[in-house]
Write a structure and sequence with these properties.
252 residues; D-Maltodextrin-Binding Protein, domain 2; nine-stranded mixed sheet; 11 strands; globular; binds glutamine
Length: 252
């Protein structure tokens, strides 16, 4: 009888722990209950940019479908690219989605979803530029977006002293147009959008680096990372992601 009581007490205790864990994890799935807060930098067309006062683009639309699948309302926070990873690490935002390249250094700071797109680092120059290949970049003034892979690779390859770091792609391209820098290293799709929007610029034919884009999460929040990743997998498998990509990147 005494033993039975003991077993019952233990079973009850175990049940409580399970119930508590279940409740605990439910309320901590996202920073704010019912919302999925995505941090991005909306100067990165066609992945994220403003149409009027609304942030649209490939990332914004994929995130919208993910939120739907999870029964959450998507909220997009437009911040500096530089602040996305710290914001995810400090649980200010649920996830970072910003055409963000997966790198070993970033993997040490955040966890990533599967990759949903490929990126390529390219070089934008003025149409009449003397720079025709990557070899010509030595000693030239290179504009980049602060803390992006373009910044990291260019600083490594050509020396920090030759690299001007801008807060975003718009400002880097303004720097090139104003003659403050001789070229801008940035991802290929935004590069195409910038060249289209600004007369007198072109993209060098040789690309600089190939990369994979993925969504980033706080390392502690494995539950959200798994749920978002499962939703993303479904959206890739059923062609929804491709449909969004085709809508923004017309086959050229
Ligand atoms: N793909 C680049 C990186 O992750 C640039 C991303 C961006 O500027 N939004 O560093």
């Amino acid at each position: 009888m005494k033993n039975l009581k003991k077993i019952l007490a233990l079973a009850l205790a175990a049940l409580c722990v399970f119930a508590f864990a279940a409740c605990g994890s439910k309320s901590s799935l996202t920073v704010e209950q019912g919302k999925l807060i995505m941090a991005t930098n909306a100067t990165f067309p066609p992945y994220e940019f403003y149409e009027g006062d609304k942030i649209v683009g490939i990332d914004a639309e994929i995130a919208g479908l993910i939120a739907d699948k999870l029964g959450l309302t998507l909220e997009i926070a437009d911040i500096e690219f530089d602040s996305i990873i710290p914001g995810v690490q400090s649980n200010k935002y649920d996830m970072g989605m910003a055409g963000m390249t997966v790198t070993e250094e970033r993997k040490a700071m955040v966890s990533f979803s599967d990759s949903y797109a490929k990126g390529v680092q390219v070089v934008i120059v003025k149409e009449d530029s003397a720079i025709v290949s990557l070899d010509d970049l030595k000693g030239k003034k290179i504009g980049v977006q602060q803390s992006t892979t373009g910044d990291i690779y260019a600083s490594d390859d050509f020396g920090e002293e030759n690299v001007t770091k801008y807060a975003n792609g718009n400002l880097a391209v303004e720097g090139l147009k104003g003659g403050k820098v001789d070229c801008v290293i940035i991802d290929n799709e935004p590069a195409k959008a910038y060249v289209k929007a600004n007369a007198g610029l072109k993209i060098l034919e040789t690309s600089y680096a190939d990369e994979d884009y993925a969504i980033s999460f706080n390392k502690q929040n494995t539950e959200l990372q798994e749920k978002v990743n499962a939703a993303l997998k479904e959206l890739i498998a059923d062609g929804s992601v491709q449909k969004i990509v085709d809508k923004y990147i017309s086959a050229q």
